[in-house]
Automatic annotation (TrEMBL):
GO molecular function: ATP binding; ATP hydrolysis activity; DNA binding
Keyword Hydrolase: no
Record domain ABC transporter: where: 6-215, 282-508
Name this polypeptide is given: ABC transporter related protein
Catalytic reaction(s) noted: ATP + H2O = ADP + phosphate + H(+)
UniProt family annotation: Belongs to the ABC transporter superfamily. ABCF family. Uup subfamily.
Protein's organism: Zymomonas mobilis subsp. pomaceae (strain ATCC 29192 / DSM 22645 / JCM 10191 / CCUG 17912 / NBRC 13757 / NCIMB 11200 / NRRL B-4491 / Barker I)
Length: 602
């Protein structure tokens, strides 16, 4: 095995009166693609900064390979002293070449000439990513890189990291991003770190096995208080086991919505408005909206029923916020009409925590200092209600100022969901949340009896909560799809394929001589060799087989007892997975090179 790029021995960090974590041993190998996972407050960002050498540990020794180029992409980099975003991206003696930074910035959709101080958080994030990628690191450390990125920018980043030949560690709440990119997991939990030679796709099954073993061990020792978060582990595990029932309900709602959807692009719902269960909440008829010469929305109609979960997706600037404002009545359409139910009571959750006063306690925020809270027509004790939102009862009288960012987000959700409402507005709700809080939010939305309108770039979240997706591509036409993000993507791909097929058929019918001549002449200008053509045709199937074999081995490695039961088999499987990943990556690079040749010849 190659020597590690970076390692820590006996790492320890003191926080407050005790240790945040202690006695950690960490090794980062060449080509590692690690997901760093843990609850908010576990110390993920601190660990990333320790690995980067930005902060010093209280205990332990850090070793780094000589000449290693290490780059840290922070969650909130400082732009102090920079007039423009370009000043930040090109600062320092180790600044990357301007042309590389500008090329990546263009792909990410950010203008580097923008003032650094007036730029949005998303623009600052894009500038920081452009700098980090252009530096061509050997080891890249990333803290929530997809926050505030639109779908196009996220997909660009995924593509770049797929081609990246170095190692990386990433903290992210984006499950799709983690599943597509990572090969190993570091789980930071209650002061310990565990490493698994599996990608994020196998993480939750591995974690649940470990937690179940811990619970059984605690019960055997008759030490109910030995695990400080015993109740939490049970609650989280039970919540995941209920996911199947929640998804079944979601699929049924999607099927019902699909049966009511008319021609592509327009939802025509034949609904009895006298039925309280299917009452129309919002009805938009042939609405259009323009700003200057740009038409944001063209002739769009939609009926939103009580109980719908409507996801709005699209690139930044496509008009998602404009559509949301039109539906809510904050702005009026240029053409068409929008009717809303008279009794709408909306709650907005946009993760702005300014309303949570730091000197207030959790009891103050939730129950105005009392012991009971009314949720709809029910009365519930504040301790039981906060436990539903993953709070330890011991925190009931803790001040908001002592909570982590994720805990504050959960507290905000708990407060807002306690209010009486029948319409929930969510604007990028998953930003800065940990994975367990996102699980909780999905469950709360599933159990919400009202209607939900949400704007999000989190593909997995949309797939798990949306009954209908409104897809915006910036042209003004809005797709209405029964289902989540993946359903919208599939419809777009099917429509593109159908359009190309119709265009080809039309050309043949018309006897388009120019098109026919061009099609005949293409092979004479360029032709792959026999070996290259064979690789181009067969590699996709071979890559798919390797992915299946890797997944099979990773499933075996997910067994937490394998290492102690059969260390030789564990080692053999680990080496086999590493070899298969290298082989798969070489095959992918080979196919991409051939695909570029084919594309360039067209």
């Amino acid at each position: 095995m190659a020597p590690p790029l970076l390692s820590f021995e006996n790492l320890g960090v003191i926080q407050g009166a005790g240790y945040l974590f202690r006695h950690l041993d960490i090794n980062i190998q060449p080509r590692d693609r690690l997901a760093l996972i843990g609850r908010n407050g576990a110390g993920k960002t601190t660990l990333l900064k320790l690995l980067a050498g930005v902060i010093e540990p209280d205990e332990g020794r850090r070793s780094i390979q000589p000449g290693l180029k290490l780059v840290l992409l922070e969650q909130a980099p400082s732009f102090e002293g920079c007039e423009t975003l370009a000043d930040y991206a090109l600062a320092g003696a180790d600044a990357p070449p301007r042309y590389q930074v500008e090329a990546i910035a263009d792909q990410l959709g950010v203008d580097l000439s923008r003032s650094a101080q007036s730029a949005s958080g998303g623009e600052q994030r894009r500038a920081a990513i452009a700098r980090a990628l252009a530096m061509e690191p050997d080891l890249l450390l990333m803290d929530e890189p997809t926050n505030h990125l639109d779908l196009a920018a996220i997909e660009f980043l995924e593509g770049w990291l797929n081609r990246f030949r170095g190692a990386f560690i990433v903290i992210s709440h984006d499950r799709t991003f983690l599943t597509r990119l990572t090969r190993q997991c570091l789980w930071l939990d209650r002061g310990q770190v565990r490493r698994a030679e599996i990608g994020f796709g196998g993480f939750e099954a591995w974690m649940e096995k470990i937690q179940a073993e811990e619970v059984r061990a605690a019960e055997k020792l008759d030490a109910k208080l030995k695990l400080e978060e015993h109740w939490l582990i049970r609650g989280v595990t039970a919540r995941r086991k209920r996911n199947q029932g929640r998804l079944t309900k979601l699929y049924e709602m999607r099927a019902e919505r699909k049966s009511m959807t008319g021609p592509e692009g327009t939802a025509k719902l034949a609904i009895d408005t006298n039925d309280v269960r299917t009452k129309i909440v919002i009805e938009a008829k042939h609405i259009s909206k323009s700003f200057g010469d740009r038409e944001i929305i063209k002739d769009f109609s939609l009926r939103v029923r009580r109980g719908d979960r409507i996801g709005i997706v699209g690139a930044n600037g496509a008009g998602k916020t404009t559509l949301l404002k039109l539906l809510m009545g904050e702005i009026e359409p240029d053409q068409g009409s929008i009717k809303r139910a008279e009794n709408l009571e909306a709650v907005v959750i946009d993760q702005q925590r300014a309303a949570l006063l730091p000197d207030k306690t959790l009891r103050d925020i939730i129950a105005h200092g009392g012991d009971w809270i009314e949720i709809g027509d029910q009365k519930k004790h504040v301790v039981g209600y906060l436990k539903d939102f993953l709070f330890d009862p011991a925190l009931l009288d803790a001040k908001v100022s002592t909570l982590s960012g994720g805990e504050r987000s959960r507290l905000l959700m708990a407060r807002e969901f306690a209010r009486r409402s029948n319409l929930l507005i969510l604007d990028e709700p998953t930003n800065d949340l940990d994975l367990e809080t996102i699980d909780l939010l999905q469950e709360v939305i599933s159990n919400y009896s009202g209607t939900v309108l949400l704007v999000s770039h989190d593909r997995d979240f949309l797939d798990n909560v949306a009954t209908t997706t409104l897809g915006m591509d910036g042209s003004g036409v809005i797709d209405v799809v029964a289902g989540g993000y993946s359903d919208w993507q599939k419809q777009r791909a099917d429509r593109l394929a159908l359009s190309q097929s119709r265009a080809s058929a039309k050309n043949l019918e018309k006897g388009d001589a120019t098109a026919t001549t061009a099609a005949v002449q293409k092979p004479t200008r360029f032709k792959l060799s026999y070996k290259d053509q064979r690789d181009y045709d067969l590699l996709p199937e071979q890559i798919e087989k390797m992915e299946a074999e890797i997944a099979s081995h990773e499933a075996a490695l997910a067994d937490p007892e394998l290492y102690t039961r059969d260390p030789a088999q564990f080692s053999a499987l680990t080496d086999k997975v590493a070899a298969l990943r290298d082989k798969k990556e070489d095959a992918e690079m080979r196919w991409l090179e051939l695909a570029e040749q084919v594309e360039a010849s067209q």
